[in-house]
Please model this.
Amino acid sequence: MKYRFHAGLMRRLLPAMAVLAMALLPRVQADVLDAAAEVQRGIESAIVELYGGEVTPETWSSTRQAVAGFTSNLQSPSSQQLWTEASLPEVAPATAEAGQLLGQRQALLQHVYALEMLDRQQKEQLEAAREWRALIQLPKYADAVQGVLALQHGKGAQRDAVSALLAREYLVWQTTLIREKTDALQRLIQQKRSTPEMIATRTGEIQTLAAFPAPLLKIVLPDTAPPVPNMATWQALTKADEAGLPPAFEAWSSQIRRDLPNLLTPEDVTRRERLLIKLLKLVPVEYSAGVRDGEIVIPIEYREAETFTIQSRQILDELRAPWERQRGDIFTQYEPALRASIEKMEAAIQAKSDSSVVDRESAKAVEILADHFGISLRRQGKASEVIAETMLDIRTLLSESHAAARAGKWSDAESLRLEAYTTFDLEIEARTMPRDPDLALRTEKLFLDGSKGQPGIKAALDARASGPALAAAYEAALAGMNDCGALLQMSISPLTAIYTTISVVTREGLEAVVILAALVAGLRGGENRRIRRNIGIGVFAALLASVATFIVSRMIITSLSRYGESLEAVVSVLAVFVLLIVTNWVFHKMYWVEWNAKLRSLTRAVNTGGETASANMAMIGVGFLTIYREGFETVLFLQSLLLEAGLRPVLIGLSIGLAIVSGMGLGVFYIGAKLPYRRLLVITGVLVITVLVTFLGSTVRLFQTVGWLPIHPITWLDIPTWMGTWLGLYPSLEGMLIPPLGLVYVGGAWLWVKWRSARTQAALANTLARPATAAAP
Model:
C-alpha cells in the first residue's frame, strides 16, 4: 500500500518536475553566462588599470575570485584542468608579468568555451553546446552558419563528425583572430602608440591563443602536437627598446604564424585558390543583376553577391598561413592590396553603390591573384574541349558532394557544392545564357534553392535531407547541366555550315570566273597566246598561295587555340566584315566592272609595250591578283567557320562549291557557254545575305560568352533551338536586335546604289539636254 502510494505520487509529480526542470535550465545557463561575463569584466577592468599604471589590490582580488569561481561551471575534465592551472596569484605581480597573465586568461577563456562546447555536444546536450559556442569570440567575417546547422543534427551516428566540424571551425576562427590581433598590434607599434603594458597583455593573449589545447587539436589533426611557446622571442620583445621593438616584434610574430596549425592540404589550398578567384569574378555579375540605381531589384542575386564577398574574405583568411609559408615575399607585397580591394568591394555592396565600383575592385583583386599569385581560372583550348572538361569536373564535384552529404559531412558537402556551382556559373551558364536563358537560369536554381516542384541542392543540404529527397536534388541539377551541355555541343548545324560554305565559295569563285572571262575575251588569237599563258601562271600561283595562306593561318589559329572563344570571336568579326563587303558588291555592278577595266587597261599596256620580262610579270600579276583576292577572302571566312562548325562540314561545302565553280569555269573557257553572270552574282549574293544574318547572330553569342557584350535575356520569349543553329537568333535583346541589322545594312546599301544611280542618270540627262537648249534660239 505504501509502495503504491509513492508510485502514484511519483506519477503525479513527474509532469510538475518536468516543468520545473524546463524552468531551471535557462537559469542554469544564465548562471554560466553571468559567470563568464563576470570573469571577462574582471579581466578587462584589471587591464584598464594596468594600462593606467598599476592594478589596485581590490580589482586584482575580485578578478582572481571570479577566475577561481568560474571552475564550478565547467564539466569537461580538459577544460577544468586547463582553467585550474591558470589560477591567478594572490598578489598582483610586476606590470609586465601581470599583463601577460591577464592576456593569457583572456585567451584561455576561448579554449575553455570550445572544450565545454565539444563536451556538451558529445553528451548530446545540444542546447548547452550552442550556449557555450555562442560565448566564443569570432573574427571578422566568420562563417558561423555551418556550425549552427551541424549542431541541429549532432546526435547518434553524426556525433563524431559534428565534433570534428565544430573543432575545425574553432581552429579556423582562432587562427584568423590571431592574425587580426597580431596585425592590430603591429600597426600600433609602427605608429609608436604601444606601451610596455599593452605589448605584454596582447602578446600574452596571442601566444596563448596559438597554443591550442591538445584534446581539441587532436580531433582535427591527430598527428600534430601542440606548439611549444617560444619564451625567448617573447622576452626579447618585452625587453626591447623603442628602436629594437619593430624587429623584435617581427621575429616573435613570425614564429607565432609559423607555429599555427596547418589545416589545409596542398589540394585544399589549390581548390580554395580557384574558388577564391571564381567567387571574385562572380560577385560583380550577381551584383549588377541584383541592384539597379541603388535599389535591390532581384534579392537573391544581391544576397549571392553579399555571400560570395564574405566567403572570399573567409577563404583569404584560410589561405594566409599557406601563402606566408609558400609565397612569403609575394604575400607580404600583394596580400594587403588584395584584401583592400575585397574590403572596398564589400563596402560598395553594402552601400548599394554603382556596379562600376564593384566591377573595378573585383577586377583589381582578380588581377592580383592572376598576375602575382599565379592563380588561373578559365580553361584554355577549343570550346568543345573546355565544355567537356568542365562538365566532367562538375559531375565529379557533385558526386563527391553527394557522398559527403550521405556520410553526414555537411560542411564538406556544401564546400564541394559551392565549387561545382561556381564552375557551372562561370563556364557552362555563361555559354548557355546567350542561347537559352531560361535553361541557364533554371539549371542555376537547381544548384541553389530550386523551384517549388524540385528543391535545389543547397536547400536540400541546409535542410539536412537524406535518402531519395537528397538524391533527387543532385539528379535534377545533373539533368539540367546535361541539357546545357547538349545545347552547347551544337554550335551551328552541320547542314548550315555546308550551305554557308557553298554560298561563299560559289560567290567568290563565280566572281573570279566573271573577271577572268572578261579579260580573256579580249585576248583571243595566237598573238595573245603568251599573255594568256602568263595569266594562267598567275592563276595557278594564286591558287597555291591561297592554299598556303589557309595552311599558315590554320597553324597560327591552332597555336592560339588556348584563347578558345575569344579567338573565335575575333575571327568571326573578320568574317562578318568580309560578308558585309561581299553583300555590298551584290548591288555595286561598278565594283567588278571597274576592277575588270583596270586589269584590261594593264593588259593593253603590256600589249603595246612588247613582251619584256616586266610585262610578263605584270600579266602573271593580273592572273594572281584576280584569283588571290577572292581566295584570301574565302580563306578568312573558312577559318571562322572551322572554329564554329568543325572540319568535316566545311570540307563538304568547300568540295561542292569548288565543283560548282569548276563546272562554270569549264563551261565558260572551254565550251564557250554564255552564262547570265549578273543574275548568278545576284543569286549568290542573296545566299550570302542569309549567311550574314546567321553569322552576325553567332558572333553576338560569342561576344556575350566571352563577356564583350552584355546579356539581357528575354525569358518570356520561347525560341526553338533550331533557330539559333540555323538562323543565329537567340532569346536576348542583343541576339534578337543585332542580326537583323545585317538586313538593314543590305537594304541601306541597295537604296544608296539606287539613289546614286538615279542621281547619275539625272545629271547625264541634264548634260545631254544643255546643247539642245543652247541650240534652240
Summary: Residues 226 and 712 are 55 Å apart (CA to CA). Residues 1-28 have pLDDT under 50 and may be disordered.
